[in-house]
Structures are given as structure tokens and as C-alpha cells.
Amino acid sequence: MILHSHLDSWLETRRRLTGQSIGFVPTMGALHAGHVSLIERARRENEIVVLSIFVNPTQFDDPGDLAQYPKTLESDLEMARKSGCDHVIFPNERQMYPDGYRYRVSENELSKILCGAHRLGHFDGVLTVVLKLLHIAQPTRAYFGEKDFQQLELVRGMVKSFFLPVEIVSCAIVREGDGLAMSSRNTRLSHVDRKHAPHFHQILTQAANADEARRALTEDGFDVDYVEDIAFGPSTRRFGAVRMGPVRLIDNCEVQR
Ligand code: PAF
Q1: Is 150 in the pocket of ligand 1 (CB under 6 A)?
Q2: Which residue among 171, 201, 224 closes a domain?
Q3: Cα 143 to ligand 1 centroid, rounded to whole Å
Q4: Do 75 and 16 share a domain, yes or no?
Q5: pLDDT tens, residue by residue, 63-100
Q6: pLDDT tens by residue, 111-158
Q7: Is 130 in the pocket of ligand 1 (CB under 6 A)?
Q8: Residue 177: inside a domain, yes or no?
Q9: pTM for the whole structure
Q10: Is the CB of 182 under 6 A from ligand 1?
Q11: b/e map 87-100, b = 16+ CB within 10 Å
């Protein structure tokens, strides 16, 4: 596995990788089994697997959340190696934002609801960094998890709108044994909150409608940001976000309407 802490090193390598399929997994580090499933799928479907680790400051609306975001580079690299990555790119902020974020991508509909309504500017930051990363990695396929379903749909839309030559591959949510969706933020839950957290998924999937889910979550002690049912093509998904102390959890599932 080759490490690239500088973009020039990766771009030099990329110029030589012609004619081989490249699977790309963009991450903010603090890797867990959900990321490993993306890497393993990329491994199965491509000749070369590239992982990026960059905690993107522009997608955080809360400086406290950015400061608390887990940074575990050594164990991330170990996990990347074991899961079969060929290259890991981990640039710093100066390299990723030579323009100081003067240039950015924004979307005006889907990015304004759900998480976008609660985390101002979040999706501008996500789309901008994903566009940069796709130009940097120049992959055949890029892998995104369905836990961040809104992000996935926005990335798909951006790729289509800007004619980017990459296939976006969506991967099912990976859950803990008790149903909690895997997230880098789970490690920041207190012991008590971690035991309570699986109720989020249970209530979200079992409630008859979004209003009932919101009410049941609140009664169960969650601080609810939102629960909404939204149609995506032929299916309807229920999206939820809750806060447990300083930690914000999101999840989603398909529902019958
Ligand atoms: O899903 C994430 O980890 C991030 O939003 C991403 C796609 C790596 C962009 O920073």
C-alpha cells in the first residue's frame, strides 16, 4: 500500500495508471466496518483501490463538532492495508483548499432539506470536496454508503449535472449487531447513550408514519432534529436525525406508503 500525504505524489502516480479500473473510497477517516465494506466492494470490482482520508472543514457547521471529530490515522492505515487498499491519499487543508474555499459547488433543492436545513452550508462543503476528490482520484467508480443517503443523491446529481466520467456506486448501510448504523461518531457516545442508541433505528423503522416516529423518539428521550418521509423515484424513504448529548446520529430506511 502506497501512502500519499502530498497530492503531487498521488497525481504523479495517477498519470502512470492508464488503462486500469480504479475504485475510489472517499472518507474522513476514523474507519469502521462500514468503510471496510466499501473498500472490499471496490476491491472486488476494480484493479486498483484508492482511499482518501481528509476531515473536510467546510462541511462542518459547528467548530466544536470539527474539533471533536475522531482522528485515528495510524489505525485507519492499518485497516486500509488489511482491507486491500493500494493507495491512500491524505492531504492537508492547504493542499485541498488552495483557493481558501472561494470556489464552491452548491445545489438549490435537495441540499436545503433534512440535514441541509439543520447544518447550514454542510452540503456545499460536501459537494465541493467530493468534486475536488473525484478530479484528484480520477476513478472509474466511487463508493458511497447509503447511511448518508442525501449525500449520495446529491453526489449522483452533481456527477450527472457536470458530466463527470465516474460511476457512483451506492452501498447498503452496515449496522452493529443491535441495529445501530455504523458511524465514526458512535465512538463519541457515552456508555449509557450507546446502549440506548439502537432505539433510534427501531423506532424509525417500526413507526406507522414520520409524525409517529418523531413523537415516539421524543418520548423515548431523543432530541429529534427531524423525521421525514420522502419519495425517491418509486420508493419512499424515512429519514431521521437525533442528538444524544454532543453526538448527532442520522439514519434512514425504506418505508411502505
Ligand atoms: O461521507 C463522508 O465521509 C464525507 O462526507 C465525504 C464524502 C468523505 C466528504 O468529505
Answers
A1: no
A2: 171
A3: 11
A4: yes
A5: 999 999 999 999 999 999 999 999 999 999 999 999 99
A6: 999 999 999 999 999 999 999 999 999 999 999 999 999 999 999 999
A7: yes
A8: no
A9: 0.97
A10: no
A11: bbbbbeeebbbeee
* Residue to mutate, 135, 151, 250, ligand 1, most ligand atoms under 8 Å from C-beta: 151
179 falls within a domain:
no
Chain mean position to CA 33: 13
Contact in structure between 130 and 25 (CB atoms under 8 Å): no
Same domain as 30, residue 143: yes
Same domain? For 96 and 198 the reply is no
| Phi, psi (deg, nearest 5) at residue 144 | -130, 145
pLDDT the model gives residue 257: 74
Q: From atom 9 of ligand 1, which residue's Cα is the shortest distance away?
A: 126
Domain membership of residue 19 as a residue range: 2-171
Q: Is residue 255 part of a domain?
A: no
Distance 28 CA to ligand 1 centre (A): 6
Task: Report yes or no on 232 lying in a domain.
Answer: yes
Residue 159, all three cell numbers: 456527477
Task: Find out whether the beta carbon of 52 lies less than 6 Å from any atom of ligand 1.
Answer: no
